[in-house]
Specification:
Length: about 400
């Protein structure tokens, strides 16, 4: 039946397949604007009331301020940049808003399942590519358009997907623990979750991105130990922090990393691990981490020189920090609605998730904040994983029902 909800579901899955599954470019030549336009037009036209909320209001304010900067000739706030900046936020918001408005648990779970399946297939294709071109994932960032298009048609994973994968480890591990504890040790879901975790982490190891590797390792370790007991989680965090900061804890960490370097599957990431070891031993960033820290510091210094309006020069910002760069470019005037948008969406997702999985989402948010501070996030994957895939995957081990207070 061609109802509003079915048209919306079709638009969501079309967008998901055509925009997050690179290999579709090989078999289904398409205009990138079509799935975007269809999803936005169907969502806004059929469900305008779904957008009467604080997160949509903050995004509109952010768009309005960026347009003012564009009219004033801000070198960063070009028309194309502003369109991309707001569009990738609004697309994920469209899916979340309408799902919550319709109380549509089915499509939430279906999107999470299809999205995870796309990631798995893309990773398997990428691992095959890396056998002949070991550094191709990293080179995609700086390659020309023809090279990127060629490897996209082969199905290679994107830079954004690699750095968004750490967001999903907490829910995968939280689901596994729930299956073991509350679902009478269901073998198939447990083995499936563990398989997905191993494949995701293998992809991160093979891609050799330092930040993604660090955050994934941290996310996995913390997810294993956290629980529903807030006091226990705080104590765990303090103990781990003390162990890491103490000389004995740092030596233990260095020893573990040095042992891991000798494992054949990750030996190709030797230089990355050496940077991590040296940074821990010195107590300050070394190697690539040092350069990234300097760029973040540069953006901070630019912001403090003009905290209200930011800088009208792109060269004054480091260009390597999603959050801090926006403070440097647009000051508090442009950044407050930007941060408030994220606050209201993350708050809505948090209260949607069942109580026993909320600590895992807090860990996911912590990973996102750290990533956004030291990495310039690009692409739709980050908001898609954070707003849609995480809560959707959480439904596979819970019995959440969407209620009005969870939609606020």
């Amino acid at each position: 039946m061609l109802s509003r909800i079915n048209i919306f579901r079709f638009a969501v899955f079309l967008f998901l397949i055509l925009k997050t599954f690179p290999i579709t470019q090989r078999f289904l030549p398409h205009d990138y604007a079509i799935p975007i336009f269809l999803l936005i037009s169907v969502s806004v036209t059929f469900y305008p009331k779904a957008f009467i909320n604080k997160q949509t209001f903050m995004l509109l304010i952010y768009l309005g301020i960026l347009c003012i900067f564009t009219l004033l000739g801000h070198p960063r706030a070009t028309f194309g940049w502003v369109l991309f900046e707001v569009l990738h936020l609004f697309l994920s918001l469209c899916i979340f808003n309408v799902i919550i408005y319709n109380h549509d648990i089915y499509v939430f779970k279906a999107v999470a399942f299809v999205g995870t399946l796309i990631i798995l297939i893309t990773i398997l294709l990428t691992l095959g590519i890396l056998e002949n071109a070991p550094k191709m994932v990293r080179m995609m960032v700086v390659s020309d358009t023809d090279v990127r298009f060629y490897y996209n048609r082969l199905g290679i994973i994107t830079f954004g997907s690699i750095h968004a994968l750490p967001f999903l480890f907490p829910v995968l591990i939280g689901n596994t623990k729930s299956y073991i504890r509350y679902r009478n040790k269901m073998l198939i879901p447990i083995s499936t979750s563990l398989m997905v975790i191993v494949v995701f982490y293998l992809m991160i190891l093979k891609s050799a991105f330092t930040i993604a590797l660090l955050l994934s390792s941290f996310s996995i370790i913390m997810s294993i130990f956290i629980s529903n007991d807030r006091t226990r989680n705080i104590i765990l965090f303090l103990v781990l922090s003390f162990m890491f900061l103490s000389p004995q804890g740092r030596n233990l960490t260095i020893g573990a990393i040095n042992t891991a370097i000798n494992i054949p599957i990750i030996s190709h990431s030797y230089s990355k691990f050496i940077d991590i070891v040296d940074s821990i031993a010195e107590g300050s960033p070394v190697g690539q981490a040092s350069g990234r820290t300097k760029l973040t510091t540069k953006s901070f210094n630019t912001f403090f020189k003009s905290p209200m309006y930011g800088s009208f020069s792109k060269v004054n910002a480091g260009g390597h920090s999603y959050f801090i760069d926006r403070l440097a470019y647009f000051g508090l005037l442009g950044s407050i609605p930007f941060f408030m948008f994220y606050y209201y969406v993350l708050r809505a997702v948090y209260f949607f998730i069942e109580i026993r999985l909320r600590p895992y989402y807090m860990l996911c948010i912590l990973v996102f904040i750290f990533l956004s501070t030291f990495q310039n996030i690009i692409g739709i994957e980050n908001t898609l994983y954070l707003f849609i895939l995480f809560p959707g995957l959480s439904l596979f081990s819970t019995t959440v029902r969407i209620t009005p207070e969870k939609a606020c």
